[in-house]
Design a protein that fits this description.
Layout (H helix, E strand, L loop, with lengths): L1 H15 L5 H10 L14 H4 L6 H4 L4 E2 L4 H10 L4 H8 L21 E6 L2 E13 L5 E8 L4 E6 L2 E4 L5 E13 L4 E9 L4 E11 L1 H6 L1 H6 L5 E3 L12
Parallel strand pairs: 2-9
Antiparallel strand pairs: 1-3, 2-10, 3-7, 4-6, 4-8, 5-7, 8-9
Amino acid sequence: MSCPHVTGAAAIVKAAYPRWSTTAIKSALMTTAYVVDPKKHENEREFACGSGLLNPTKAVDPGLVFDASEKDYVDFLCKQSYNTTTARKITRDKSVCRGIKPARAWDLNYPSFSLAVEDGHEIKGNFHRTVTNVGKPNSTYNVSIVMPDSIKVNVEPSVLSFTDIGEKKSFCVDVNGQHITQVPIISGSITWKNGKHVVKSPLVIYNVLPSVFLTNPLYRTQRLSTHQTHISPGERSSFQPH
């Protein structure tokens, strides 16, 4: 039953902003959602409740959006070992993967952050994101981080100042922590606030057993020297984010 409700909410945002991309609309719905306590879904947490409960009223005034073009998504496929033939089976057009080097899937400009860490290894990762100001011309946003004390999260810069609507600003998120063992999911969030708007993104760290890294080709091909990888929307994993 969620599909018609989300479709209706998306239609409301689309009516308010006819020129927005589907990605911007999705971002507005996700970052303004009512917060749902992930602990109520103990086994899956954010992988069960997503960003929360939709709030269409706030979604038409999100302040900031995480936008991405159609080309960004095609490049995302190409960077994940798709070639022109396999990518076209999804895009149904003349997209070409030629000349695009493999890259990190988790840097897709998506309004959430998820970090998979192999069991027994250190928590370490970084994300790059770009937000677009769709609120007031002169706005300053400060970051707020929620995460257990054992996990260190640094956002740089911690303040984003905009002077115009449509202006873009980028930031980097660094995540570090001790070895993680038999801890299924660690929940947190990164929120940008300017006194009026609250732009919240879930940040999830989850434990993956070594056997999954060895048998899942997506983990195996992206495995880093620190024995970790990241999952973004579109990839297969043992969890299916909503």
